[in-house]
Amino acid sequence: MSEPLKACPFCGGAGTIETWGPTGAAYVWCEVCRAEVGGDEQTTESVAMWNRRAMPAEVRKVVERMVQEREGCLDCQYPDDPFTKTMAAYLGEVIAALEAAYDR
Prior knowledge:
Shape: elongated
Structural class: alpha+beta
Number of domains: 2
Largest sheet: 3 strands, antiparallel
Number of strands: 3
Strand content: 5-15%
């Protein structure tokens, strides 16, 4: 079973999966703006394509800065300080969440 469909990346509308033919080819289209992806792919691949989101440039810059800050925390004079460890761990979690939310 494929992952649940996200809202349309263009208008926020609901997506619909259409399959046809003996190969089970599928595409996903928006019920509002009619945007679509897929065609020759199986349902799983079409849904993954529909759900993929590019990381906006502004967010990418923030993530890159956070990676640098995290490395700075770990390379600082007091890497074993509890606050330093907590902040480095927190930045790592935020970075991972942002990267997971977008196709990276």
